Structure formats: structure tokens, C-alpha cells
């Protein structure tokens, strides 16, 4: 019995061990992520703290996982990919994130840019994300409970905007709140699968790049307790 208990304990620790995290990083490299700073931040961010304890053993798999309220923590590949796309134009000081969810993508972003402004429509998810970031001593994030369709106009413009839920069309408010040269990364489409878009605000308008097919939960309207 004793032995069995120890084994279980050990395997539990193994799931979140450094070696398990290294395997994830290796997999992300194989899938095409290439930014050393982004990979380093993913390596050192404890994703198991952003999911329920019962799912912690799966936290370093490259997969989305449920976080309650019909929402999911994004797949690590997607977190890395979207972060790379946002940062590819150079350093960013002000980033708006729509869809805080578990706060995992927020924590990754916050370690790579100066300030993150993060909007979430489900208050209980937002409260938990806030606690996690406090615990991890991530301090350069400001949270807002509200509807991300409207962005966060009072603090605009932003050099980068990342949306982690799929919209049928690009919300016009987000385009308006993008600074000149600013970059918006957003999944767009209304079915189960969407297209990941990068939109760059240039002197003569918005340039759209269509990147790859993705699967996100929908960007909904209004806010909820
Ligand atoms: N990046 C998050 C992903 C969470 S899933 C993570 O890795 O944990 C998408 C999130 O977007 C959900 O938390 C959902 O509640 C939120 N969301 C959906 N529509 C929204 C809206 N209109 N405004 C703000 N947040 C929204």
C-alpha cells in the first residue's frame, strides 16, 4: 500500500515536473514556434496553476482544457503562436487582451510587454485569474469586467490587441483602438473553425493577413456574474 501511495505521489509530481515542461517546449518548437523569449516565458509559467487541481496532470499537454462556464484555457501552441504574431513588429508597451479566461495567456503576455489591459465578461473567471496573477507576482496587468466587443476605449490606443475568443467579424471598436503601426491578432469566423487573422494598422489603412485555421470558443455579447 505504502509503495503504491508513493508511486502515485511521484507520478503526480512528475506531471508538473521540469522534464514534462521541457517536452512541451520541444513539441512547440517542432510545431513551428521560434521566438526564444516566448518559449522561455512558456517554459517558466506554471500552467498547472491555471486549471483545476483535477486537471493539473494534463497542464503540460499541448491541448486546450476546460476552466468552467463552458470556457477553455487556450492550447499552449496557440498561446505561443498568437504571442509571437503580436510581438513580431517589435516591443510593445500597451496591450489590450479580450477574454482573460484563466489568465494564462495574460500571464504570458505580461512577461513580454510593458502593460496588459485585460477584459473578461464572466466575473468569476476574472476574479480567479486576478488571484493567480497576484500569487505569481505578475503586477503589470489591469483587469476590466465587461464586454470586449467594445474594447477598452478610455485607455486607447493600444500597440497590440489580442482576442482569445472567436468573433464572426472583427469588432469595429478594436480597429479604432489600435495605435498607428499597432497589431491585432484575432480568430474570425462563426463556425466551429475560424481563421486566425493578423491586422496591422498602416498609414493608409488596415492590412489583413490570414494565417491558419483555429478553434476558439465564441466571443459573446454582454457581461455576466
Ligand atoms: N486566454 C484565455 C482563453 C479563455 S477562453 C485562457 O487561456 O484562459 C475565452 C474567454 O473569452 C472566456 O473566458 C470568455 O468568457 C471570454 N469572452 C467571450 N466573449 C467575451 C466578450 N465579449 N468580452 C470579454 N470576454 C469574452
Q: Which properties best describe this structure?
A:
methyltransferase; Rossmann fold; 225 residues; globular; binds S-adenosyl-L-homocysteine; alpha/beta; two-stranded antiparallel sheet; 26% strand; 7-stranded mixed beta sheet
Short structural description:
The protein has 225 residues and is of the alpha/beta class.
What this model shows, in words?
The chain is α/β, with parallel strands linked by helices and 225 residues long. It has a single domain, classed as 3-Layer(aba) Sandwich (Rossmann fold), CATH 3.40.50. Helices cover 32% and strands 26% of the residues. It contains seven helices and nine strands; from the N terminus they run H-H-H-E-E-H-E-H-E-H-E-E-H-E-E-E. The strands form two sheets. A seven-stranded mixed sheet has the order 5-4-3-6-7-8-9. A two-stranded antiparallel ribbon has the order 1-2. Helix 7 links the parallel strand 6 and strand 7. The N terminus is likely disordered. S-adenosyl-L-homocysteine binds next to strand 2, helix 5 and strand 4. It is found in: Cytoplasm. Its main location: cytoplasm. One of its GO terms (molecular function) is protein-L-isoaspartate (D-aspartate) O-methyltransferase activity. Keywords: Cytoplasm, Methyltransferase, S-adenosyl-L-methionine, Transferase. InterPro entries: PCMT, SAM-dependent_MTases_sf.
Amino acid at each position: 500500500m505504502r509503495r503504491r501511495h508513493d508511486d502515485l505521489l511521484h507520478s503526480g509530481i512528475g506531471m508538473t515536473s521540469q522534464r514534462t515542461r521541457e517536452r512541451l517546449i520541444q513539441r512547440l518548437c517542432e510545431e513551428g514556434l521560434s521566438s526564444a523569449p516566448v518559449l522561455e516565458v512558456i517554459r517558466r509559467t506554471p500552467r498547472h496553476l491555471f486549471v483545476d487541481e483535477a486537471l493539473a496532470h494534463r497542464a503540460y499537454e499541448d491541448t486546450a482544457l476546460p476552466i468552467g462556464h463552458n470556457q477553455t484555457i487556450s492550447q499552449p501552441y496557440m498561446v505561443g503562436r498568437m504571442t509571437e504574431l503580436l510581438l513580431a513588429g517589435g516591443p510593445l508597451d500597451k496591450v489590450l487582451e479580450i477574454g482573460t479566461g484563466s489568465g494564462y495567456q495574460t500571464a504570458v503576455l505580461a512577461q513580454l510587454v510593458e502593460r496588459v489591459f485585460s477584459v473578461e465578461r464572466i466575473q468569476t473567471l476574472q476574479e480567479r485569474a486576478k488571484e493567480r496573477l497576484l500569487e505569481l507576482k505578475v503586477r503589470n496587468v489591469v483587469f476590466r469586467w465587461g464586454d470586449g466587443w467594445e474594447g477598452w476605449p478610455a485607455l486607447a490606443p493600444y500597440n497590440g490587441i489580442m482576442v482569445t475568443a472567436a468573433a464572426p467579424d472583427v469588432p469595429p471598436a478594436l480597429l479604432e483602438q489600435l495605435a498607428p503601426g499597432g497589431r491585432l491578432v484575432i480568430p474570425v469566423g462563426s463556425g466551429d473553425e475560424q481563421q486566425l487573422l493578423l491586422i496591422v494598422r498602416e498609414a493608409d489603412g488596415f492590412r489583413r493577413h490570414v494565417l491558419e485555421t483555429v478553434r476558439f470558443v465564441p466571443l459573446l455579447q454582454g457581461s455576466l456574474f
